[in-house]
Automatic annotation (TrEMBL), chain A:
It comes from the Bacteria. It comes from Cryobacterium flavum. CDD domains: TM_PBP2. PANTHER family: GLYCINE BETAINE/PROLINE BETAINE TRANSPORT SYSTEM PERMEASE PROTEIN PROW (PTHR47737), GLYCINE BETAINE_PROLINE BETAINE TRANSPORT SYSTEM PERMEASE PROTEIN PROW (PTHR47737:SF1). GO terms for cellular component: ATP-binding cassette (ABC) transporter complex. InterPro entries: MetI-like (IPR000515), MetI-like_sf (IPR035906). Pfam families: BPD_transp_1 (PF00528). It is found in: Cell membrane; Membrane. This is ABC transporter permease subunit. Keywords: Cell membrane, Membrane, Transmembrane, Transmembrane helix, Transport. Residues 89-268 form the ABC transmembrane type-1 domain. Gene3D superfamilies: MetI-like.
UniProtKB/TrEMBL annotation, chain B:
Keywords: Amino-acid transport, ATP-binding, CBS domain, Nucleotide-binding, Transport. GO terms for cellular component: membrane. SUPFAM superfamilies: CBS-domain pair, P-loop containing nucleoside triphosphate hydrolases. Signal peptide: none annotated. It holds the Pfam family ABC_tran. The keyword Nucleotide-binding applies. GO terms for molecular function: ATP binding; ATP hydrolysis activity. Gene3D superfamilies: CBS-domain, P-loop containing nucleotide triphosphate hydrolases. The lineage of its organism: Bacteria, Bacillati, Actinomycetota, Actinomycetes, Micrococcales. One of its GO terms (biological process) is amino acid transport. This is Glycine betaine/proline transport system ATP-binding protein. InterPro entries: AAA+_ATPase, ABC_osmolyte_uptake_ATP-bind, ABC_transporter-like_ATP-bd, ABC_transporter-like_CS, CBS_dom, CBS_dom_sf, Gly-betaine_transp_ATP-bd, P-loop_NTPase. CDD domains: ABC_Pro_Gly_Betaine (cd03294). The keyword rRNA-binding does not apply.
Length: 308, 434
């Protein structure tokens, strides 16, 4: 009875050995590139005094949502400073930014491909299902094997874990564009690339932005888990507090994650709707000149046709 | 339909035995259809949306495709600009066979030769009116200032001056469709395809748009292929109409041909509640003139004609056969009694004369005002036929076709036969002047 066993795990191990052996140059390259990217972003976030960063975050907050959100942002970030988690939080933010930028850069083209080709979609969908149902921790194992301990396996695991909604919502958004409008593009002789750029992507933008928002939120949650493989930052604090059952450290690091999460979520969600204070401001300035001219004609009367 | 074969360059769009089937094996379906199977027989394999459609649309013509929902109109029109492939058959636009060209060449044909107006407008919602109108020009590669200038003239033309910088969502439905029309006109292609372009508009705006479309067509001379499921719209707009049923074109003809000579019961039933008065013309309902004499024939001949036909009025022609007027029996009687012979003194001009292409709705008023039949004359004033009130009513009400004669076509005689006979003094006279 215990004789019968399908050694799936061993097969996977053989595969991994093979890949690490023959493609090590690739993994070395990725490790260097990701580590470089992380260190650059981290340096930009950590080296200036905290009030500079809070000031910049405040600007972003007011541009995206307005004064109330600005106040919330400043209070939240000051709390992180007060809990002495500022540097960890900035490390975490750097991880999230690097991982989600790469995840977005990969998921949008994949989503476009899936929307344009039924064949691609039927391959990509089950892979996404697989990625989304696989427990998050499992991604850490191959990442560790290929990239060794440090930030890079954390970033890689995060990218893979967080990509799925980006792909899905991009595909959904593009497929959801009114087919008559796409038809109008072709009927006037637009090329497929032009239709994508001028019709499908702009009209799918709100859905794609919702995907980007989700990618960022998933990145944040995965980056914390990546603390297990030595990605450091708030994740490492949480892991330490877990092993020591340190409620003080745990709750402070946890609260810092929540504050970052709320900030990132609200900013990206606002950008997705396209109705930000900054865009209203720009629209207002643009419409200043013709606004006076259109006042007289603004009455909703069906104008008469002018004869030739 | 009876015209001679038009020259090649006068044909804008030609569809030759078009088939379109949806299903797993569309070519199999078409093969079966060509072998004589019916649409119902292949329904287990898929849908035959268009079956063996052939027609030619002349330059400057408004060609309407009409049929109930699901009859294949949209499928047909989408094959005409290659948005959908044909399963079998060919389409040529301005002489180019678009079923046999590369994707790039097809895009070229769409840019230069054929544009489209959509049922639900299909405007780019994130662009202003002027950028929507300029869209086709942008794709054609025209520079920004040039295309905006051209778009502005088109915006004026379709009556949207002052709305150039608004977004489509800020416009009413009728105005949005003007933008759709403007976009197609700006592209300046010879052919416009319009798929139920006015169906989403409410009736008043719709009528206005139809009238404007006809004006624009007259001004710009575009070839228009217009899809509709509304018969009145088809009759109003169409120079010719193709009636579709279950994927097949069952009749192609002018609105009048379709009304007066439906190819089958289906078409007949379809057209039975059309507003006939606005479609039928005087020429199609007029009857041959029987009570007619020439001016020189004299009063006795007039009286004899009226006696034989039992009427009180007869039409009078000049020597060159042109229409002179009418004479009434009482006047003729007096003339005879006085022994005079010149009819000219008593010819009245109170009969209305109309041209053959006058629509029936314009005959109602003269018909109400006078019991006299309406005279139909050509542009040289030659009498072609008459339309008694009864005939008019019958035609509008679709009581009977204009074949068999109606029982009463002229005002009945007011003087008895015996009285006339007595005056003429000769009851056996034959050979009435016609
Ligand atoms: N993509 C498709 N796949 C399968 N069947 C289709 C497809 N498009 C159309 N059909 C079928 O083809 C037939 C003709 O459809 P089409 O849309 O051309 O009709 P229509 O005359 O335009 O009708 P409507 O007035 O409702 O627009 C219908 O039976 C329809 O169900
Ligand atoms: Mg349709």
């Amino acid at each position: 009875m215990n004789e019968f066993r399908i050694p799936v795990g061993s097969w996977v191990e053989v595969l991994f050995d093979f890949v690490t052996e023959h493609f090590s140059f690739f993994f070395d390259f990725v490790r260097l590139a990701f580590a470089g990217a992380f260190e650059t972003v981290d340096y930009l976030l950590v080296s200036p005094p905290f009030y500079v960063i809070i000031g910049l975050a405040g600007l972003l907050a007011v541009a995206a949502r307005g004064w109330k959100f600005l106040a919330g942002t400043v209070v939240g970030l000051l709390l992180i400073v007060g809990m002495n988690q500022w540097e960890n939080a900035m490390d975490t933010l750097a991880l999230v930014l690097v991982a989600s930028v790469i995840a977005i850069a990969m998921s949008i083209p994949l989503g476009i491909l899936a929307a344009k080709s039924k064949a691609a979609s039927s391959v990509i969908r089950p892979v996404l299902d697989f990625l989304q149902t696989m427990p998050a921790f499992v991604f850490l194992i191959p990442a560790l094997l290929f990239f060794r301990v440090g930030e890079v396996p954390g970033i890689v695991a995060t990218i893979i874990f967080a990509m799925a909604p980006g792909v899905r919502l991009t595909e959904l958004g593009i497929r959801g564009v009114d087919p008559e409008i796409v038809e109008a593009g072709s009927a006037f002789g637009a090329s497929p690339g032009r239709i994508l750029r001028q019709i499908q992507l702009p009209l799918a933008l709100p859905t794609i932005m919702a995907g980007i928002n989700q990618v960022i939120m998933l990145s944040l949650s995965m980056v914390v888990i990546a603390g297990m493989v030595g990605a450091g930052a708030l994740g490492a604090e949480i892991m330490t507090s877990l092993s020591r059952i340190d409620i003080v450290l745990g709750s402070e690091a946890g609260l810092a994650v929540v504050i970052l999460a709320i900030f990132l979520d609200r900013v990206t969600a606002a950008l997705g709707t396209g109705k930000t204070p900054i865009s209203r401001f720009i629209a207002l300035r643009k419409s200043r000149a013709p606004a006076s001219a259109s006042v007289e004609t603004a009455a909703p009367v069906e104008p008469e046709l002018v004869r030739l | 339909m009876t015209e001679s074969i038009p020259l090649q360059e006068t044909i804008a769009v030609k569809a030759d035995h078009l088939y379109k089937a949806f299903g797993r094996r569309p070519h199999e379906i078409v093969k079966k259809l060509k072998a004589g199977k019916s649409r119902a027989e292949i329904s287990s394999h898929g849908v035959a949306a268009v079956i063996d459609a052939s027609f030619e649309v002349k330059k400057g013509e408004i060609f309407v495709v009409m049929g109930l929902s699901g009859s294949g109109k949209s499928t047909l029109i989408r094959m005409l600009n290659g948005l959908w492939d044909t399963t079998s058959g060919t389409v040529s636009v301005g002489g180019t066979d678009i079923t046999d060209v590369s994707a790039k060449e097809l895009r070229d044909v769409r840019r230069k030769s054929i544009s489209m107006v959509f049922q639900h407008f299909a405007l780019l919602p994130h662009r202003t009116v002027i950028d929507n109108v300029a869209y086709g020009l942008e794709i054609q590669g025209m520079g920004r200032t040039e295309r905006l200038a051209k778009a502005r003239t088109i915006i004026d033309l379709v009556g949207l001056a002052g709305w150039a910088d608004n977004l489509p969502s800020e416009l009413s439905g009728g105005m949005q469709q003007r933008v759709g029309l403007g976009r197609a006109l700006a592209a300046d292609t010879d052919v416009l395809l319009m798929d139920e372009a006015f169906s989403a508009l409410d009736p008043l705006i719709r009528r206005e748009m139809q009238e404007q479309l006809i004006e624009l067509q007259a001004a710009l001379g575009k070839t228009i292929i217009f899809i509709t499921h509304d018969l009145n719209e088809a009759m109003f707009l169409g120079d010719r109409i193709a009636v579709m049923r279950d994927g097949r074109i069952v009749q192609i003809g002018t609105p009048e041909e379709i009304l007066t000579d439906p190819a089958n019961d289906y078409v007949a039933q379809f057209v039975q509640d059309v507003d006939r008065a606005r479609v039928l013309t005087a020429a199609s309902v007029m009857e041959p003139v029987r009570a007619v004499i020439t001016k020189t024939a004299g009063p006795r001949a007039a009286l004899r004609t009226m006696r034989d036909l039992q009427t009180s009025v007869t039409f009078v022609l000049n020597r060159d056969r042109s229409f002179a007027g009418i004479v009434r029996d009482r006047d003729v009687l007096k003339l005879v009694k006085r022994g005079e012979t010149d009819l000219r003194a008593i010819i009245r001009d109170d009969a209305t004369a109309v041209l053959p292409e006058t629509v029936l709705v314009d005959l109602v008023e003269p018909s109400v005002e006078s019991e006299l039949p309406i005279a139909v004359v050509d542009e040289k004033n030659r009498l072609l036929g008459v339309i008694p009130r009864v005939t008019l009513l019958a035609a509008i009400g679709n009581v009977t076709t204009n074949t068999g004669p109606l029982p009463v076509v002229m005002p009945p005689a007011t003087i008895s036969v015996s009285q006339i006979a007595e005056i003429l003094g000769d009851t056996a006279l034959e050979g009435v002047e016609a």
